[in-house]
Amino acid sequence: MDPHLLRTYVTVARFASFSEAARTLGYTQSAVSQHIAALENDLGLPLLGRRPVVPTPAGERLLEHAGSLLLRLDAARADLARFAAAPRETLTLAAAPLALRPRTLAALPAFGVTLRTLPRDEVPAAVATGAADLGLVDGLAAPSDPLRLPDVAPLTAVRVAEEPLAVVLPADHPLAGRAGLRLADLVDARWLDAPDAGFPLDRLRAVHGGPAGHGFRTALFYEGTDTRTLGALAAAGHGLTLLPVSLASAIAGAVAVPLAAPRLAHRTELLHTGAEPVVSAAELVRRLRV
């Protein structure tokens, strides 16, 4: 399967348009049509309807494979390119919002750093494809357990932080006086769903272990990455949220009640390829390693 043809197919499917895909890829519309026809001929299956331009059932299944296949190819190209790259003094760090804690920020080099905040699911891909030199990801894990990361490339993960979690409640909430809370106590509560700034509710449902799709109703969906806004929304009563205790306890107008069960921690890991040509990267890894 020719990856150039596959990339063209994914672009056409994304835009639902041959002409828009041609403009995006820098091809003629005729070339795009030829790419799709060649891929369909190779696989022996129609992949796209033409009017409208929508994937066939076989095309939908191919899309499920295409993203990871193309990402792996991009990661391999970037990994090999590092062998020919000269050492650099500049550093690009991709980080999930909750991974940026004060100790992490203090460890950054004094100059030559580009800090890029990304949704946590995009950080491993950014490191694998060379869009970032290092990555900081975070997530929920049992104490001392590593994070479960997508298999996008051979990446090395180093633990840099781990701390308890707290439920953020408005100061006048009936549960604000508790010494601790269990997720099981909060299944029927109204929550903030903030997959980029906090934790997606699907993850809370998974660690709670209840029936699929049960509980943890969304009161408000927040699409941003600003953790301060997330905390302010919780303090204003728009829904509960779960945050690292150091961040939760600093939110004005809110109460941070420790999570008592299940036993979970907020874990942060530093990602690198193991063949990093950035001079300052090795020093940052050394500073952050715990």
Topology as H/E string? HHHHEHEHEEEEEHEHEHEEH
Q: Low-confidence runs (pLDDT<50, min 5 residues)?
A: none
User: What is the rounded Rg?
Assistant: 22 Å
Proportion of strand residues: 15-25%
Mean pLDDT, all residues: 90
The main sheet comes to: 5 strands, mixed
Number of strands: 11
Q: Helical content, roughly?
A: 25-40%
| Structural category | alpha/beta
Q: Major sheet: order of its strands?
A: 2-1-3-11-4
Summarize the structure.
By secondary structure, this protein is α/β, with parallel strands linked by helices.
Describe the model:
This protein has 290 residues and is α/β, with parallel strands linked by helices. Helix content is 37%, strand content 22%. It is built from ten helices and eleven strands. The chain has helices at 3-15, 18-25, 29-43, 57-84, 102-107, 123-128, 201-208, 227-235, 245-248, 279-288; strands at 91-95, 113-117, 134-141, 156-163, 165-170, 181-182, 190-193, 217-221, 241-244, 254-261, 265-272. Strands 2-1-3-11-4 form a five-stranded mixed sheet. α7 links the parallel β7 (190-193) and β8. The radius of gyration is 22 Å and the shape is globular. The mean pLDDT is 90.
Task: Summarize the SSE layout with pairings.
Elements: H1 3-15, H2 18-25, H3 29-43, H4 57-84, E1 91-95, H5 102-107, E2 113-117, H6 123-128, E3 134-141, E4 156-163, E5 165-170, E6 181-182, E7 190-193, H7 201-208, E8 217-221, H8 227-235, E9 241-244, H9 245-248, E10 254-261, E11 265-272, H10 279-288
Parallel strand pairs: 1-2, 1-3, 6-10, 7-8
Antiparallel strand pairs: 3-11, 4-11, 5-9, 5-10
